């Protein structure tokens, strides 16, 4: 068998020879410091073009050591599998690039150990800032980053040691519950408590949504049935299991539901389809999440759309201002009527 030697990597010295200039000039261009060195735009353009043609890859970790900032910004997210977190990632990347920053994103699957591992990996690349989105323990990530002199901003779930940007979960849940209660009363002519399903009872967002859920019932003079409050987690299979167990205890199921995310809604709808319950008429649903495909379910649903554009604008306003105080910015969500 013939052995092939690996192709020699292009160096800055090779580029300098091709461009007819010094290695230090090439380094300045590739690191973005050519204007300070009074290198002409024409030479900078020639060096950049040569680097692309030769397949030269800048050693980012080595170059960071020679610069004050890396211009890398990191984000951790718990999930990619719904429109909310997908939209956060997409718009984060766009806003980062508008500012000349290079975005790095990784999914941590709501696993505290993976969150810490991801934060440590990003610190090794010397990110300038880390956005902790939906972190289970944001304060631990803040402490880890602070030890390396890296700023952190919390998104979606708040912490107590860094600025946080979240939805107004209480206000959104209050209005969503009001609407579903009114829809049920209008159609059935009776006031009855709703079912609450999905989310984690220990996280801030779910607790605030349950608070809004309960206060809307109190406004309407309807006692909450605590056996119908099921913060079973976000996974579809957990919502499906919770519905199955509830139906095993009683066949008199509520005519209205508050579902805590489209991920949980997937499990609820799967159970409805397979169980045969609500075969004659769909219950009125309220979902604290948004997806246009839910329009396929008909006109018995209200949705809360979290205002991702304004949430990320608030995140970058904090970053641009240099603020580090652990304040919480609450962005009002948008009510969406489907059908």
UniProtKB/TrEMBL annotation:
Pfam families: LacI (PF00356), Peripla_BP_4 (PF13407). GO terms for molecular function: DNA-binding transcription factor activity; transcription cis-regulatory region binding. InterPro entries: HTH_LacI (IPR000843), Lambda_DNA-bd_dom_sf (IPR010982), Peripla_BP_I (IPR028082), SBP_2_dom (IPR025997). Residues 10-67 form the HTH lacI-type domain. Keywords: DNA-binding, Transcription, Transcription regulation. This is LacI family fructose operon transcriptional repressor. It comes from Shinella fusca.
């Amino acid at each position: 068998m013939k052995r092939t030697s690996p192709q020699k990597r292009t160096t800055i010295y090779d580029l300098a020879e091709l461009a007819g200039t010094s290695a230090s000039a090439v380094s300045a261009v590739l690191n973005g410091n050519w204007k300070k060195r009074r290198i002409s735009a024409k030479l900078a353009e020639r060096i950049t073009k040569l680097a692309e043609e030769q397949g030269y890859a800048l050693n980012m970790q080595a170059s960071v050591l020679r610069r004050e900032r890396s211009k890398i910004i990191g984000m951790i997210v718990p999930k990619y599998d719904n429109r909310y977190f997908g939209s956060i990632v997409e718009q984060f990347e766009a806003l980062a690039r508008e500012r000349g920053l290079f975005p790095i994103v990784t999914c941590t699957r709501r696993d505290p150990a993976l969150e810490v591992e991801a934060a440590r990996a990003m610190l090794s690349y010397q990110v300038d800032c880390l956005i902790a989105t939906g972190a289970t323990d944001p304060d631990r990530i803040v402490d880890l980053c602070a030890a390396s002199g890296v700023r952190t901003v919390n998104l979606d779930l708040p912490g107590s040691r860094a600025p946080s940007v979240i939805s107004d979960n209480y206000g959104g849940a209050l209005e969503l519950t009001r609407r579903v209660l009114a829809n049920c009363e209008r159609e059935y002519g009776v006031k009855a408590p709703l079912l609450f399903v999905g989310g984690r009872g220990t996280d801030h967002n779910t607790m605030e949504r349950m608070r809004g859920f309960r206060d809307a019932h109190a406004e309407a003079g309807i006692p909450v049935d605590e056996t119908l409050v099921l913060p079973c987690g976000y996974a579809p299979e957990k919502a499906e299991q919770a519905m199955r167990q509830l139906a095993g205890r009683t066949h008199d199921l509520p005519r209205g539901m508050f579902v805590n995310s489209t991920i949980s809604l997937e499990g609820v709808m799967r159970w409805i389809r397979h169980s045969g319950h609500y075969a004659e008429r769909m219950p009125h649903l309220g979902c604290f999440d948004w997806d246009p495909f839910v329009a396929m379910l008909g006109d018995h649903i209200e949705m809360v759309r979290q205002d991702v554009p304004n949430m990320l604008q608030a995140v970058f306003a904090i970053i641009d201002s240099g603020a580090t105080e652990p304040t919480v910015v609450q962005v009002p969500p948008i009510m969406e009527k489907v059908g």
